[in-house]
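Here is the promised in-class demo. Please do not try to memorize the tokens; focus on the logic of going from shape to residues.
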């Protein structure tokens, strides 16, 4: 019954996705949404829609959470990431999609949707996580749909994130556009 009531509330306009910002880069190394865009006291969950085209072939779309001072959280083994078909890896950044085709090869890069739960609840509880569904192309490897998940390792990081920065693993964006939406608590 609760799910039906939540759905009715969403459809009637009582909750849902609230557009917060859209940022586009035609060059550069990062797109950042800080605490001036992402208010963790108002929204604990966010949805990102975007496209990513690196300037060099085979780049990963990566991210780091930001702390309250706007500094990237990059502690050793802070992020645990699972890419579909792979294994869990720990590193200083999270990953959305790997081996993306580039503008130099006349490819479209990747189109992604990411779902962020921002609440860092402590060592024994749920931690900040980003789950993504990506359609990627690369003429050198098989394209297709890739699912991924990254989270802050609660045994390593207990800081409450307040923002996020997206970046290619190396090089720059040729083009990247990302929209962020807050998920209304009444949804």
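The designed amino acids, position by position:
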């Amino acid at each position: 019954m609760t799910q039906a009531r939540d759905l009715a509330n969403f459809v009637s306009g009582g909750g849902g996705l609230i557009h917060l910002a859209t940022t586009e880069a035609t060059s550069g190394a990062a797109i950042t949404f800080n605490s001036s865009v992402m208010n963790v006291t108002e929204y604990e969950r966010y949805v990102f829609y975007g496209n990513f085209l690196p300037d060099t072939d085979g780049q990963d779309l990566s991210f780091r959470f930001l702390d309250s001072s706007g500094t990237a959280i990059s502690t050793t083994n802070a992020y645990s990431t699972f890419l579909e078909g792979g294994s869990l890896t720990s590193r200083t950044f999270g990953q959305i999609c790997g081996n993306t085709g580039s503008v130099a090869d006349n490819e479209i890069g990747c189109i992604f949707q990411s779902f962020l739960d921002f609440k860092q609840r402590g060592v024994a509880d749920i931690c900040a996580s980003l789950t993504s569904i990506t359609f990627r192309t690369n003429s050198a490897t098989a394209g297709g749909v890739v699912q991924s998940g990254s989270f802050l390792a609660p045994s390593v990081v207990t800081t409450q994130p307040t923002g996020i920065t997206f970046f290619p693993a190396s090089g720059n964006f040729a083009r990247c556009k990302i929209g962020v939406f807050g998920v209304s608590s009444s949804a």
